[in-house]
Amino acid sequence: MASAGLQFFAFMLALFGAFGDIAATLLPNWKVNADVGSNIITAITQMQGLWMDCTWYSTGMFSCTLKYSVLSLPVYIQAARTTMVLSCILSAFGICITTVGMKCTKLGGDTDSKSHTCFAGGVCFILAGIFGLVPTSWYTREIISNFLDQTIPESSKHEPGGAVYIGFISAGFLLVAGVIFCTSCFKKQQGAWIYPPKQQHFPSTQQENNAGYNLKDYV
To answer: What is the residue range of the signal peptide feature (predicted)?
Structure first.
């Protein structure tokens, strides 16, 4: 029962991680630049994401521009697009697979089949966490390096936005969920290997004695 509860906890972590992964992929605030003019009315906030760039004004109006050209984007943005999409796909596959393999569900067949299915779902979550952690780390490194570069003007420097932090947290959730699913199945199989079922063996001498007694009864 404790193992089933632990798997359910890992499934909830993976669910939050998958939703956060999708949100981080679509949000436009991967990096933020606040440009405050001489008047509070002219204050704007520029945000750049993987798919669009948005500008928010202090008056409440905003405008967004989609990034249609892929080849004109920097390499780290192209890599972030690909890896984040792969992370979302793998996390979705992991949710579908672990739903079948968890102990609290009545799907997936016998215990061994559910254990193998659950292990496969855990591997999907681990890969999804890695694919989500790599672009966020690379993107953050580019933002920090540009911010510390003295040759770049202050108006062109940015800070990490909320989407980056959501990506980090979601990747952590997916990694933890994948490790829990894999270790729970591995411990069960390892216990079966270390403690095999005991088989009762009757000594041959005892069987011969019993046969002797039976012959004496007929004499």
So the answer is: 1-24
